[in-house]
Amino acid sequence: MTGRQDRWAELTGGQAGEQYARRFARLAESGHDIHGEAAFCAALVEPPARVLDAGCGTGRIAIRLAGLGYRCTGVDIDASMLAVARREAPAQEWILGDLARTDTLGLEPEFDVVLAAGNVIPLLAAGTEAAVIGKLSAVLRPGGLLVTGMGLDAAHLPLPEAPFGLADFDLWCERAGLTLRQRYATWSGDPYVPGCGYAVSVHARPDHPDHLDRPHPGSH
């Protein structure tokens, strides 16, 4: 990557796949809706839109979206997580790779949605966040959407504190040619207000690459 270990690897040692899968299996068995992220994306674009699940983990979201008719590709740097994804959906496209080096993974700029859920951005290696957002923006088609979900405080992160704030994140997105389109406090669409501990953000690429400052029409 850059010689720096991402925060996820520091927390898990790259061996969290089975444990992570069991956690969500228990939630589903207890009646919790574990498909909020997929439902959120499905409300933004219709199948068979192309979705890149960046930091896909065990494939929970990508597998759900594929079942709804979306064309999904999952990328993750944690081999233990991808082992679960490949076992659960062997016919889907799963790529072991670094989000800071998506240009080496053979991904074309043809995705309608790039999804980075599950605190993917806050758990990147320190100092790589802006570069990763730039790489993710680069694989979006004109008019495509970057959809992110992240904790903003220790109560919503597996970290003692948030490594950056929303102002930093929005600046990185702006520099990557993205415009904030919507922001919510949950995947269910609850309104975001300053001070919320979690943010679900939708940033859009312009419809025309030569008009980077043109606002994206329409709304969710």
Automatic annotation (TrEMBL):
Residues 51-144 form the Methyltransferase domain. Coiled coil: none annotated. One of its GO terms (biological process) is methylation. One of its GO terms (molecular function) is methyltransferase activity. InterPro entries: Methyltransf_25, SAM-dependent_MTases_sf. Pfam families: Methyltransf_25 (PF13649). Keywords: Methyltransferase, Transferase. Its EC number is 2.1.-.-. This is Class I SAM-dependent methyltransferase.
